[in-house]
Amino acid sequence: MIIVAVAVVLVALGIGLALGLRRRGRSHAAETARVARAERLRQLPSFREALRRRVLALTGILALGAVAVITAGVVAARPMSSQTIQPVNTSRDIMLCLDVSGSMTEVDVEVLSVFEELLDDFEGERIGLTIFNSSPVQIFPLTDDYEFIRSHLESIKSSFDYTDAVPEHWVGTLNGNGASLIGDGLAACTMGFDRPDDERSRSVIFATDNEVNGASIVTLEEAAAYAAAKEVRVFALNPVQGKDADVSAELAAAAEATGGAAFGLRDTTTVSDIVAQVQEQEATALRGEAQIVWTDTPNLWIAVLMVAVLSFIIVVWRVRL
C-alpha cells in the first residue's frame, strides 16, 4: 500500500508539472497580444466572479497539495497502534499415571477415553503415559505428537478388553512383589518429566484406589515429597474415596503436599469433570503477564492520501480548463 501511495503522489506531481509548463507556454503567447482598455475589463462582474473562482481553485490546489504531502509523510513514518494482551502460556506437561491393577480397569479406560477426546483441543501441551502395578512402565514419554499419543492411548485402552493372551498393560507391570505399589508408581511418573530448566507447568493425573498390596521401594509420602521438590503437582483420582477414611486421607495429604488435590469418583462425578477442574487450575497458573503489542496501522492514512491526491489532480485539471 505504501508503494502504491508513493507512486500516486509521483504521478500527481508529474501531471501538475506538465500542466504548469503547458500553461506557462500559453501565458507567454498571450503576453505578446495587447488588449486596449484592460482596466475596464477588470471591472466587469463576470470577470471578478471568474477571478474569485480561480483564486479559490488555486487555494484549493495549495491546500490539497499540502494535505497530500503531510499525509505522505505520516505514511512514510509508519503510524502504529498499541494493544494490551494477556497471553495464556500452553507450556504444560501432563503425565498420566495409571494404576493398572484389576480393580482400576473401569477408571483407567475412562481416563484414557477422556484424554483421547481432549487431544483435538490441545495446543502445545505435552502428554506422557506411565502405568504401574507391582512395577512401573513408561508407555510413551512426554510429547506433543498427538497422532502418536492417540495411537498409544487406543492401544492401551483396547488391552483392557483382555482379548490377547498377555494384555499390553500387563507387560512389565508385574515384575515386583505385590500389587498397586503406588509409591513406586508416583516416583516413576515424576521421573518422566524432562527439561528441568524450562518454565513449564508440570502435573500428574494419578489414578489409583490406593489399595497397596506389598512393600514398595518408595512410600507414598516419599514419592509426594520428591514430586514437590521437582515442582510437579499431583492430582489424584480415587474411585473409592471415602470408603476407607485413613486410605483416602493419606492419598489426599500426599496430593495436597505437592500443591495438587485429590478427587473422589462418585456417581455424580466423572473423570471428565475432574480433568476439566485440573485444566482450569493449570490455565490460571499459566496465565502470563500483560504485554503491549505494537502493530502498523497505515490504512486510514493511506486512504486519506489517496483521496487528497485524486482531489488534487481533479482540481488542477479543472483550473487548466
Structural summary, described in words:
It is a single chain. This protein has 321 residues and is an alpha/beta fold. 51% of the residues lie in helices and 17% in strands. The protein contains 10 helices and 8 strands. The strands form 2 sheets. A 6-stranded mixed sheet has the order 4-3-2-5-6-7, with helices on both faces. Helix 7 (220-229) runs parallel beside helix 8. The longest helix has 32 residues, at 45-76. The two termini are 32 Å apart. Residues 93-278 form the VWFA domain. InterPro entries: VWF_A (IPR002035), vWFA_dom_sf (IPR036465). This is VWA domain-containing protein. Keywords: Membrane, Transmembrane, Transmembrane helix. It holds the Pfam family VWA_2.
